[in-house]
Write a structure and sequence with these properties.
With 214 residues, the protein is α+β, with helices and mostly antiparallel strands. Helices cover 15% and strands 35% of the residues. The chain has helices at 44-52, 75-86, 160-167, 181-184, and strands at residues 13-17, 21-26, 56-57, 66-72, 90-99, 106-110, 113-115, 123-125, 134-143, 146-153, 192-201, 204-209. Strands 1, 2, 3, 4, 5, 6, 9, 10, 11 and 12 form a ten-stranded mixed sheet that branches.
Length: 214
């Protein structure tokens, strides 16, 4: 059973503000958008709204994942940002610390994913009914007992990076949902961070970076 939601204390970082959009840096443990119930009202969007006015979510990160999120500041911008994501003009880069030493220097994971309904919110690999899901990876560094990876989700399924890396045999350190007890307890947080974001818009390009904090 997952622990009750307790939003982390402290301010969020606003990376950039434009008239139609903003880029935010989400801390680990904070919901991207409000959840069900008043106890889950505190989230990245409500904190951003208190700082810069109205914001509208167009994508999100898992609660445990940290890093960059772009949000619309006008309703007209919502459609343009949604189109950038649906047309794959949005490119996200992540860094992760994973359990064990990954063989090879780069590769691609191509495993279909589906919700594991009896064990929600977990997802699972399902060759029969799963939706196509692809992740490319590259080794950045090898350390004692773990490997630092750069990850590019080619598709955007729920928990995709976490499930794919567990299936590869290298779960992300600190992941409370996936992996064995050893990898779950190897870090005080999920070691997954959205470190770069690039969106190709008709009015120009949105680019932001955020170094991994682990």
């Amino acid at each position: 059973m997952l622990a009750p939601y307790r939003a982390p204390q402290g301010p969020i970082r606003v990376v950039e503000v434009a008239p139609d959009w903003c880029v935010l840096d989400k801390p680990p443990g904070l919901l991207s958008v409000p959840g069900r119930g008043p106890e889950k009202a505190d989230c990245l969007m409500t904190r951003a709204e208190a700082l810069i006015g109205s914001v509208f979510a167009v994508h999100r990160l898992d609660m445990e994942t940290s890093g960059l999120i772009v949000a619309a500041r006008t309703r007209q911008a919502v459609a343009r940002l949604n189109a950038a994501f649906s047309e794959r003009r949005a490119h996200k880069t992540y860094e992760a610390l994973v359990w064990g030493e990954v063989a090879g220097d780069s590769g691609e994971i191509d495993l279909p994913l589906i919700a594991d309904w009896p064990n929600r919110p977990r997802q699972k690999v399902c060759p029969v009914e799963g939706k196509p899901s692809r992740t490319s990876w590259r080794v950045l560094a090898r350390m004692a007992g773990c490997t630092r990876l750069r990850l590019h989700p080619i598709t955007g399924r729920s928990h995709q990076l976490r499930v794919h890396l567990e299936a590869l045999g290298h779960p992300i350190l600190g992941d409370a949902l996936y992996g064995a007890a050893a990898s779950r307890g190897a870090a005080p947080r999920l070691c997954l961070h959205a470190c770069a974001l690039d969106l190709e818009m008709t009015e120009g390009k949105i680019s932001a970076v955020s170094p991994a904090p682990f």
